[in-house]
Amino acid sequence: MAETGLVKNNYKSNQAIKSLLEKCGIKKDKDVEELYLSNQDLSEVVDLTRFKFLKILWLNANKLRSINCLTNNFLLKELHLENNQLTTILGKLRHLTCLEVLMLHNNQLTKLERVAKEFNKMQTLHTLNLFDNPVSQEPGYRLLLIHTVPSLKLLDRQEVGKTETDQARRVYDQEQEKIRETIAFGRRSEGPPELYYPPGLERSRTIDIESKNIGNSYLRDNPPYDNTEEAVNARRLKKSVTVFTTFDWSKIPRYEERRQMDKPFDSPEIITHVYR
Question: Does domain 9-180 have CATH number 3.30.56.10?
Answer without folding.
Answer: no
